[in-house]
């Protein structure tokens, strides 16, 4: 990106800009980040976002909060959420839109996501240069469903995910085999989040 | 404790939001790859490099007005740098509570110790790290150590441990004794005494590490395997002073040695001032 | 009964009150003003701006006053302030060819287009303390001014050598240079980041590194092709306008060192360049930077990397005085805990080595 592009305002006013972002951009971003940090540190534990924004459909409040807390002009985002959602995101976060899955730091999938193998997995020296997939699902419940083990989990966490894409566990298992490279997934439903960092092993419940 | 007036003209917790987001993204990746050093765009802070700028930046990216912050240096809340950092956050983070009680804290920023009071799930430990690279004394070139971490090639460290055994007859460098995290990454636990290393293993708390000058941060998620490097025939055995605390009588805590006169008189007191005070209060009650 | 030392907070505020008192010095004497510092300690201000990476003479003067003249402390103050500033844009590259020259010398040609301009230099002063300066009210007579006759262009010496085919080409790049204040360096860093790092490196460190090359540690054979100092225009392109506008001018010093290069299988013998460009009238650092830049080009030019000044990771990792002084000075912080563990190890080793030579039994004070 050239210096001149960086100076350009991120977006023109469109319908998406009519909907507000965080009520308090500083403190709401902090509480959203803490929920995501907690989710990432304790995979499968469902966190509730205390003060999410009300993004345009089809972005769920949780996904909107995660994005506004984490993305900005330094992080290309790819999403299938449509023009209004993109405009909202660009207006409030100032993020560039990625050209394809391999260019995105963050992906927001409201429908079927691109294959995990198509996303950036980082390198062995820089495994942090990997994509984060924000995946919207219908519901997240603790206590039953998938059996999760790995760092952040004392013995086993159970997580029921309603509406995960078909074949997700198999794809995710293949991706986890790349460790330390790999994609990290943040699941969103309503105002709830749960995370599946690349270290988490998933077994069908 | 007197709370200084909030500093006007600065964002909540001092850092601008763009910097916080950059650190937050790096922290999430650090949690996802336990023990791996994530480079980050460390900023110049109003405190000097080497005085906790990494820990301060991590804390600033993490805390909110609903948090209760404890800051310790050498285990104590009243050491000058701990006081200075606590005052800094009291000035720049309106609403934030500070405490000296380990059990009350939601975020604990530390230099050189892990509290004696067991940590719990609601807590985040933030370690100030002077040197994040565990291999640096063996290989000062970071371009090379990055490669070694990528390959999980830690043969150098094994050689160092052999040398320790030959010279010292034991495994357990006195502090900053390297650990393996999740069986994959060799990690510097920061200059905590080897006595504290076992507290990192399967800790219920999230542990975050910030090295400002070296521009690296890393993490150990809760309930993650953290093994101090050793050999089967020379197991890791941390040392502590063979004494007891002159104030609370504890025989199981890490002790500071005090010189009481110039005739060889000395005594020991707990390095963890809160733990020691709590024990004395309990005794008195 | 032993009582733990308390009162860190009070001790800190008392220390800072004392510091403020010491800073002011004798209140019977007039207080020094930041404008005086800005006008009369200009080279200190320039160094603070250069190493603070922030062009603001009045803030630099304030920093010097606040730091009691400790320039590294002043640089730190300015850096810590700079880091909080929002960024409104990125300037276009400076055109030093269009510099309003105050000083311009070449050691390679006796005369050249644009001429030799000594400017306000310490060179050729006899370093005799001038006791007249100790007296108040000393105002020097105005310096004679040259006839404003030949307003000739002042072409660069390196350009003239290049026209003759004697200067090794350096591939121009349109790539956006990195920003070492935002992204941590990794190695190899590349020349753009190297020059960024050197431009704000500690002057003493740069000087010593440069000096080491002159004494044979990574020898190159430098000539001051040209040293120029003066004012250049800073321009940005506001996105709403789409064309460059001038936002001001700054004083810079540029040094181009010319070094012999023996040539290789693919390239004939020619000269190569070491480049220095720094904020302010900081000539020593521009020259040092140019020597170190050339030394760091060793690998690129197929020279053997044998000396510290040629080692990119070594030079760039240790050039920043804010990082260096912070880490050095952190040794003043309490290290009771680490020291205690070393004590235990040393005692255990001594006990194992020579049990009879144990120190006298430790007396534990009564509880």
From TrEMBL, chain A:
Gene3D superfamilies: Bacterial phosphonate metabolism protein PhnH (3.40.50.11310). It comes from the Bacteria. GO terms for molecular function: alpha-D-ribose 1-methylphosphonate 5-triphosphate synthase activity. Keywords: Transferase. It is an enzyme of class 2 (transferase). GO terms for biological process: organic phosphonate metabolic process. The keyword Transferase applies. Its EC number is 2.7.8.37. This is Alpha-D-ribose 1-methylphosphonate 5-triphosphate synthase subunit PhnH.
From TrEMBL, chain B:
It catalyses: alpha-D-ribose 1-methylphosphonate 5-phosphate + AH2 + S-adenosyl-L-methionine = alpha-D-ribose 1,2-cyclic phosphate 5-phosphate + methane + 5'-deoxyadenosine + L-methionine + A + H(+). Its EC number is 4.7.1.1. GO terms for biological process: organic phosphonate catabolic process. It is an enzyme of class 4 (lyase). The keyword 4Fe-4S applies. Keywords: 4Fe-4S, Iron, Iron-sulfur, Lyase, Metal-binding, S-adenosyl-L-methionine. Belongs to the PhnJ family. Catalyzes the breakage of the C-P bond in alpha-D-ribose 1-methylphosphonate 5-phosphate (PRPn) forming alpha-D-ribose. This is Alpha-D-ribose 1-methylphosphonate 5-phosphate C-P lyase. The lineage of its organism: Bacteria, Pseudomonadati, Pseudomonadota, Alphaproteobacteria, Acetobacterales.
TrEMBL record, chain C:
GO terms for biological process: organic phosphonate metabolic process. Its EC number is 2.7.8.37. One of its GO terms (molecular function) is alpha-D-ribose 1-methylphosphonate 5-triphosphate synthase activity. Keywords: Transferase. It is an enzyme of class 2 (transferase). InterPro entries: PhnI. This is Alpha-D-ribose 1-methylphosphonate 5-triphosphate synthase subunit PhnI. It comes from Muricoccus pecuniae.
